[in-house]
Amino acid sequence: MYIIIISVLGITMITAAFTAIYARKLVTSIIAAGVIGLFASIIYLLLAAPDVAMTEAAIGSALTTVVFLYALNKIYRFNEGEKND
Amino acid sequence: MIKRFVTFLLILLVGFFFVSYVVKVKPADKLPSLANDYVNKGIDDVGSANIVTAVVVTFRGLDTLGEVSVLFIATAGVGFLMRIEDKKSKLIKKRPASELLRTGTNFLMPLIFLFGIYIFLHGHLTPGGGFQGGVVIATGVLLLLLAFTSSDINHTLLNITESFSGAFYVTIGALGLFLAAGFLDNRILPVGHFGKLLSAGAIPVIYSLIGIKVGSELVGILDSLHKDE
C-alpha cells in the first residue's frame, strides 16, 4: 500500500515535470513546477521527514511559485513597454 | 539531431550512475554511529525533544548560520535589483482584489501569523522551526499583499528587525564560547525539563530569532517584487 502511494505520487511528479518542460504557456509550467513541490512534500511526510516536508510545502510549492509568477508578470510588462516605445 | 542524441546519452549516463545506488542500497536496520550518538546522547546533552532541531541548531549550528547568511545575500540581491525601477512603477494602478479575498484575508491572516509563531517557538518540541515558521509568516503577508494591493510595508522596520535578529543570533552563538562548550552551544541557558516549552537552553531563542529573520527577509523579497510589478 505504502509503495503504491509513493509510486503514484512519484509518477504524478514526473508527469508534472514533463508538463513544466513542454507546456505552451509559461503559467502552466510554473503551476506544474509548484505541483512537483507539493507532491514532494507529501512524499517527505510519508518517508517520516516532517521537518523537510514543511519547508518544501511552504517554499517549494507556495513561495517559489509566487516569485516565478511575479517575475513572469514583470517580463510581460517589460516586453509590452518595449513594443510601445 | 546530434545534439538530441548527445543529450539522451548524457541522461542515460547520469541514470546509469544512479541505478547502482538504487540497486545496491539496502534499507538500514540500524543507525550509523554518528547518527546513533545524536539520537541517544542528544537528548541528554541538548534537551530537545525534536532531534532534528538539536542537529540543525546546535550540532550543525554553523551550517544553519551559513544558510541564514545565504538567504540574507539573496534578499540583498533582490532588493538591489528591484530598487532601480522604483520610480516608474508608481504610475501603474492596480486592480483591487475581490471582496471574498479581502474578507478571507482579514480572517486568516492572524491565524497564519499565529501558526508561524507557533512553529518556530515549538521548534525544539514538534516538527518545524525557524525557517518553516518564517516562511509561513511570509505567506501570510503574501495573502495581505494580494488582498490589499496598495498596502505599504515599512521596509525600514523590516530591515531593523532583520539586522537585529541576525546580530542577536550571532551574539548568542558567541556567548556559547564563553559560557558553554563552544560557538552556538545551547547550554548558555538552563536545559530545563525535557519536553517543556521553556527547555533545551538557547534553542527556542535561536529559532525564534531565525524565524523573525527569515520572515522579515522573505516579506522584504515579496514586497519588493509586488511593488515593482
Q: Could you estimate the helical fraction of the residues of chain B in percent?
A: over 70%
* Oligomeric composition of the shown chains: heterodimer
Apparent shape of chain B: globular
The structural class of chain B is mainly alpha
Mean pLDDT of chain A: 86
How many β-strands of chain B, per DSSP?
0
The ordered string of helix (H) and strand (E) elements of chain A is HHH
> What separation lies between the terminal Cα atoms of chain B?
40 Å
How much of the sequence lies in strands of chain B comes to under 5%
**Rg of chain A from C-alpha positions?**
16 Å
**How far apart lie the N and C ends of chain A?**
60 Å
Number of structural units classed as domains of chain A: 1
Largest interface summary: A-B, 16 and 22 residues
Question: Could you characterize what this model shows?
Answer:
- The complex is a heterodimer of chains A (85) and B (229).
- Chain A contains three helices and no strands.
- With 85 residues, chain A is an all-alpha fold.
- Chain A has one domain (2-84).
- In chain A, α1 (2-22) runs antiparallel to α2 (26-46) and α2 runs antiparallel to α3 (50-84).
- Chain A is elongated, with a radius of gyration of 16 Å.
- Chain B is mostly helical and 229 residues long.
- Chain B has one domain (46-84, 95-228).
- Chain B is built from nine helices and no strands.
- Chain B has helices spanning 2-24, 33-46, 51-59, 61-83, 86-89, 99-121, 130-147, 155-179, 203-228.
- The longest helix of chain B has 26 residues, at 203-228.
- Chain B is globular, with a radius of gyration of 22 Å.
- The A-B interface holds A 50-51, 53-55, 58-59, 62-63, 66-67, 70-71, 73-74, 77 and B 50, 52-53, 92, 119, 127-129, 131-132, 135-136, 138-139, 142, 218, 221-222, 225-226, 228-229.
